[in-house]
Amino acid sequence: MGVQSIALSLLILLSSAWNPAEAAVVRRRAPPGVPQYALDYAPLVYLHSDDEYRPSNIRSMLRNTQPRVNFLPISGGPLPVTLDNIDQLNNFGGDSVYLTSIKDVATDIEQAWLKGVTPDASGLTDGAISAAIIINEKDANTTDVFYFYFYNFNSGPPVWNIKFGDHVGDWEHIMVRFQNGVPSALWYSQHADGQAFTYDAVQKLGKRPIGYSAKGSHANYALDGNHDHTIPNFNLPGAFFLVDFTNKGPLWDPTLSAYYYKFDGGSSTFTPYNPASPVNWLYFKGKWGDQQYPKDHPNQYILFGQARFSGGPTGPLDKELQRKDICPSNVKPCWVRPFLTAKLMKE
Questions:
Q1: What is the pTM of this model?
Q2: Phi and psi at residue 270, in whole multiples of 5°?
Q3: pLDDT (tens digit, 9 = 90+) per residue, 290-333?
Q4: How many angstroms separate the CA atoms of 337 and 270, rounded?
Q5: Cβ distance 253 to 44 under 8 Å?
């Protein structure tokens, strides 16, 4: 055992004030070359205490799905599909390819692989690489670091006790913009929209910003409580119509089990910081999940244009990694909030 390992063991044994945040700081590991500030200011995420769908091993999606186009299996594609060859599916339908559950989720929503992995006491999703950290050095002064979070299932919150928006696969992210290695602002993804805040405004554990992952939907919020998102990019306190719920459940440190990449905005290419990390999966243009089931599919319904089971999402490449503002281009105006709203009503 090396000197560093001995010191770490002694620290764990002797510290009576040991907690997940401190454990995450001590245990955090990243490949050489990753900017230290991308780790020092990496967001920590509180999962909802009652969310049964936890962060998931990205590879586990591939073991439990089959690529299809228009509900039909692809013929001639790579077998088995892996993170190293999934980009080859672009030749069989591009963004029309869906990673479709081998076992129908609409008739068996309790499949174990959908549940993901609950972080341990240090914030690690043990045995599951459930995050991708993508670093875009835009110019000599500005760097955007995207912290992508993966879940095998999205359980949409009910509207008037009616479920909408369940789907296989869920990519969410928080982005931190740095100026000369100093964090200036954050973007919290929320469904098709989100919110931006200054770094000084958000809650922190030490220097690390806090995000709250909503129950089931995994939208990211800067506060715990109830979030009515009926108005895009604006959250109302209380619970009126479209509501997400967050609280201080298990604390997750995505940096403990993640792939790390450098992104070149000019060429839209990825370079892994660890040469052993898979990279081709980042070029997959298809959907991480099932195609929206037709209305006559078992347990499917479509009301007011909204489906109980909707289609899966696209991956990180489709999330505007080379954006001008802290917000994606569909969010106008891009309001970077210098404060948090009042404490929201508890669930």
A1: 0.90
A2: -115, 140
A3: 999 999 999 999 998 889 999 999 999 999 999 999 999 999 99
A4: 31
A5: yes
